[in-house]
Design goal:
Layout lengths: L1 E6 L5 H18 L10 E6 L5 H4 L4 E9 L2 E2 L1 H11 L5 E8 L7 H18 L3 E6 L8 H7 L12 H9 L2
Helix pairs in contact: 1-6
The chain binds flavin mononucleotide.
């Protein structure tokens, strides 16, 4: 079994999550928890390094993108359209959003809709939304618009949720 975890990341958050998922899958393979007697081979790569020819080798593909402006990054959408849609591969997605867990319902709904849109486009089996991280506190007007409390930690990642998702793949 060959598995690819491919990600795009502007500030490193999604990359760290992708690497964590890779570590968990590698650990599971080492422990013999693989559905393949030959053992699992797991690669973690930025989508920019993933050529169509390379994709053919993988049995399963896990893809991750952050949310910017309530959408996945345009490069991620293009990658899904050009290289994943219609591939017939088993695909699972993770989306990384700072405000999904705590923001106003209208933004949560917008992010959920975007996640479902990109899942359908990719023909993916599943999509999950993980909390993200921002580099510095948002100004007051932005917190008001997004419905975020002033004391919300900059890092919203829930590593237990990420581990549990990776263990269920
Ligand atoms: C320019 C910009 C726009 C963003 N827009 C959103 C957004 O619309 N909704 C959201 O939940 N988070 C938004 N975020 C926060 C990112 O989702 C969060 O920082 C994520 O962890 C970034 O992942 P990365 O480090 O892999 O780029 C934005 C961050 C930046 C820098």
């Amino acid at each position: 079994m060959k598995m690819l975890i491919a990600y795009i990341s502007k500030t490193g958050t999604t990359e760290e999550i992708a690497r964590k998922i890779g570590e968990i899958l590698k650990e599971r393979a080492r422990a013999g928890d693989v559905r393949d007697p030959d053992g699992a081979h797991i690669d973690v790569l930025p989508i920019a390094d993933v050529q169509s020819a390379l994709l053919k080798d993988y049995d399963r593909i896990i893809l991750g993108s952050p949310v910017n402006g309530m959408k996945v990054l345009p490069e991620f959408k293009a990658f899904v359209e050009e290289k994943i849609a219609g591939s017939g591969k088993r695909v699972d997605l993770f989306i990384v959003s700072y405000m999904f867990g705590r923001g106003r319902k209208m933004w949560r709904n917008a992010i959920s809709k975007e996640a479902e849109r990109i899942r359908a486009l990719a023909g993916a089996s599943s999509v999950v939304i993980f909390g993200g991280r921002i580099a510095k506190a948002l100004p007051g007007f932005a917190r008001l618009i997004f419905g975020l409390p002033a004391d919300l930690p900059l890092d919203q990642r829930d590593w237990a949720k990420i581990e549990s998702w990776a263990n269920g793949l």
